[in-house]
Specification:
This protein is of the alpha/beta class. It has a single domain (about 10-325), classed as TIM Barrel, CATH 3.20.20. It contains ten helices and ten strands. The chain has helices spanning about 40-50, 65-80, 100-115, 140-155, 165-175, 195-205, 235-245, 245-255, 270-275, 285-290, and strands at about 10, 15-20, 20-25, 55-60, 90-95, 120-125, 160-165, 185, 205-210, 260. Strand 3, helix 1 (about 40-50) and strand 4 form a beta-alpha-beta unit. Bound molecules: NADPH dihydro-nicotinamide-adenine-dinucleotide phosphate. NADPH dihydro-nicotinamide-adenine-dinucleotide phosphate binds near residues 211, 214 and 301. This is NADP-dependent oxidoreductase domain-containing protein. Pfam families: Aldo_ket_red (PF00248). It comes from Loxostege sticticalis.
Length: about 350
């Protein structure tokens, strides 16, 4: 069986976090409905990923797969493949749970679904607070963060962090709270370099985790009119060829060389191996420069349907969209059998 060797970064709480993780968001289909067709494959691939050496798993309440992710983790612990302390499990608190006391409710429910005593990192998924009915609750994320500090104090999470926070929001959080977030999980890929935000986080010892690391390069995210590079982009193909790697490996390696953690999602075993096989080569300065030129600020995940809500973190556009129901209301398990 293939084995992968993934190095660690250090969080500001002194604990280690693997530089590459396994993402578990199955996404919405083209009707904007959450689709569990690939869930058995996700379970199988995650199980394989742990077998071959992945130790970092990224999930969330929103993803509706915490029960299945927890089953895989517990099975691997029972089988003696890993110990709990070898794994780094991240989950996230959704918009509905932004009142201070509700953060603990949400984290305890995630732990119950995951069947774990603690998570290694829990993130505030977004800075906005929105009810299941789409009402803007306008709860200050500083209040929500106090709930995170309590969860940390109680040992339900070993570290606390945020996701989708911009520089201004982070500055305000740092100026008004006791615990510095261990991590900010944000979209970063070749089209969206986020230099200012990454520089700010790195200067403040906040580890940056890159979600959607392939951007619109992969067919599932390649919206019509979305920019290059795609998988067959000639510049990318020629750089990949030079190192004997694939275009996706070059992409993940580039992010790693920027000091970023990536959490690619795949339900393919060969890609699980491929995505982690990036730690045995170094992109040279010229290639790094060429790759940086693809940065044009394009967002793969703009979530513009939240743009009129308080604390929406990105630039607003002219588009008016309804929030997909699947991002507002759901039962907790993908199989909809868990409250
Ligand atoms: P990714 O950039 O990980 O892209 C996933 C897509 O890429 C899938 O279609 C997958 O297909 C394909 N893929 C994976 N590996 C390869 C490869 N080596 N070659 C070709 N295609 C490949 O995007 P995601 O949006 O899924 O982001 C990753 C993770 O980040 C999520 O799963 C989630 O955990 C997290 N996330 C967090 C967000 C937040 O708000 N905090 C927002 C969005 C994501 P296949 O499965 O068929 O291999």
């Amino acid at each position: 069986m293939a084995k992968v060797n993934i190095p660690n970064f250090k969080l500001n709480n002194g604990r280690e976090i693997p530089a590459l993780g396994y993402g578990t968001w199955l996404g919405l289909n083209d009707k904007m409905v959450f689709d569990i067709t690939d869930l058995p494959k996700l379970v199988d691939t995650l199980s394989y990923a742990i077998d071959i050496g992945y130790r970092h798993i990224d999930t969330a309440h929103l993803y509706r797969v915490e029960p299945e992710v927890g089953q895989v983790i517990n099975k691997k612990i029972e089988e003696g493949v890993v110990k709990r302390e070898d794994l780094f499990v991240t989950t996230k608190v959704w918009h509905h749970y932004h009142r201070e006391a509700d953060v603990e409710v949400s984290v305890r429910a995630s732990l119950r679904r995951l069947n774990l005593d603690y998570v290694d990192l829990v993130l505030m998924h977004w800075p906005m607070s929105i009810s299941q009915d789409g009402v803007d609750e306008k709860i200050d994320y500083l209040e929500t963060w106090r709930g995170f500090e309590t969860v940390l104090k109680k040992g339900l999470a070993k570290a606390i962090g945020v996701s989708n926070f911009n520089v201004e929001q982070l500055k305000r959080l740092l100026a008004n709270s006791k615990v510095v977030p261990a991590s900010n999980q944000i979209e970063i890929n070749l089209n969206l370099g986020q230099k200012e935000l990454v520089d700010f986080c790195q200067a403040h010892n906040i580890v940056v985790v890159a979600y959607s690391p392939f951007g619109t390069m992969v067919p599932s995210h390649a919206a019509p009119g979305s920019p290059e590079p795609k998988l067959n982009n000639p510049t990318m193909v020629s750089i990949a060829k030079k190192y004997g790697k694939t275009v996706t490996q070059v992409t993940l390696r580039y992010l790693f060389q920027r000091g970023l953690i990536s959490i690619p999602k795949t339900v393919s075993k060969s890609r699980v191996v491929e995505n982690a096989d990036i730690f045995d080569f170094v992109l040279d300065e010229n290639d790094v420069k060429t790759l940086a030129e693809f940065d044009n600020g394009y967002r793969t995940v703009p979530c513009s349907f939240w743009q009129d809500y308080a604390n929406y973190p990105f630039e607003k556009t002219d588009v008016k969209l309804e929030i997909p129901l699947a991002l507002r209301k759901w039962k907790n398990g993908a199989n909809q059998d868990i409250d």
